[in-house]
Amino acid sequence: MKTEIQDYNNQLLTEDKAICDLLARTIDAELSDAENKIWHAHPVWFLDGNPIVGYSKLKNSVRLLFWSGQSFDEETLQNEGKFKAAEIRYTAVEEVNIVNLKRWLAKAAHIQWDYKNIVKRKGRLERLK
């Protein structure tokens, strides 16, 4: 795990840190070609400069966000925002279903909307994969 991601996780309370450590390890393992960094103050993974998945600490939970998640056809993921993002929130590490997480990460690599160029296209998303 990158130092900056571990530093983000280390500042969290014990249960939230456990959730984030598990998410980061799993994302790193499943998306080994992805670049990851702290982006807009939260850990985010990118493929070819396009944001794919990230997580953030909210007031009462940890949110795992897939930028193209609305296209995954997954009931467990909830729509987020006006574009194609979908999320799931966790309050305990036991809530993280690794089988689901790995499936979502595989879909994230294969189903992508072009967020990298959204500003250039004046808010219009185009499907990459």
Automatic annotation (TrEMBL):
What Gene3D superfamilies does the record tag this protein with? 3.90.1150.200
InterPro entries linked to this entry: YdhG-like
The organism of origin for this protein: Pedobacter helvus
By what name is this protein known?
Answer: DUF1801 domain-containing protein
**Where does the YdhG-like domain lie?**
17-108
